[in-house]
Amino acid sequence: MESLQKSAEEQQYTLYKDNSWPNKQESTNHYKSGVGGFVLVHAGAGYHSESKAKEYKHACKRACQQAVDQLKAGALAVEAVAAALVELEDSPFTNAGMGSNLNLSGEIECDASIMDGKSLHYGAVGAISGIKNPVLVAHRLLSEAQKGKLSAGRIPPCFLVGRGAHDWAISHGVPPCPSEKMATKFSLSAYKRNKRKMELAEKMDTGHNQTKKSRQSSGNENGLECLDTVGAVVVDLQGNVAAAVSSGGLAMKHPGRVGQAAHYGCGCWAENACNMNPYSTAVSTSGCGEHLIRTMLARECSASMQSEDAHQALLEAMQNKFIMEFLWSHTTESMCVGYMSAQDSKAKASPCANEFFTLSTTLA
Fold this sequence. Notes:
This protein is α+β, with helices and mostly antiparallel strands. It is built from 12 helices and 11 strands. The protein has helices at about 25-30, 55-70, 75-90, 135-145, 160-170, 180, 185-205, 210-215, 290-295, 295-305, 310-320, 325; strands spanning about 10-15, 40, 110-115, 120-130, 160, 230-235, 240-245, 270, 280-285, 335-340, 350. A hairpin with a 5-residue loop joins strand 6 and strand 7 (about 240-245). The chain starts with 10 loop residues before the first strand and ends in a 13-residue tail after the last strand.
């Protein structure tokens, strides 16, 4: 979750399998024997109202169930992870899709991206308005790119922003949704509070220190901080991985701002094992977009996980490559995480509060 003034606050989730599968055929057979299939979702880093804790858990559980249902029906990881994100976007309590943060102009602009570990194709949208489920546009961009070149040898897009993204989505069958219908009582109330505080801060321009203090003190009052990027990672029954993220972005952001949720290698990353990479990895990040963009955290975490001692390599990567981003970091006050395997009868969900939380699982 990101508020008006917040230093780097990142959360990342990684799934990896060991390299005991010598080839694709064996891994496919292994999963078809009834073992495998997993999803993990998160509702965003930062402040979550305790009064809505049940709603966050329910949203995460529903997202997990949607993904697992897709997997059991034979869907690939990239399809299942999109289904999970749609459920999170439809929740009015997350900062993605419905109920997203409003920008300075009082409008909703969303970012989303998705990556398929099997093909390494990627699709993303930035600052898109009037679309209830931005992840569906990102997924459609990915799917269209997999079909190959367009007429006259044109290259299909993988990342679209603003009005162009909206028009492309409509032309490819994604239903529109008026921005005013995407705002909720919670997001509108937060916008009004944020706007009042900004106006007050500007009037109190009596010195750098006083202004700075006023801005810093506004972060936690009245639950002003809104949820950040939601995301999910999936391993399907064939051993393929996929990851996706979706976000309404910073509260009171400048119109047209695009956060890490849409940037390649920053919001999410997914990559199946191959000759060069012994492990399949899927990563979803949540935190301060500007910091994550500068560090390409998702891709860097994926690369670190290729080490034999993955946990140590990941720790070293964070210390050596991102330490400047963490010098002023602080504990995420709450964060709801849900997970479920294809063998589970129901999903589990619980809040987390750690300086830097990593969930990893090894699939034998």
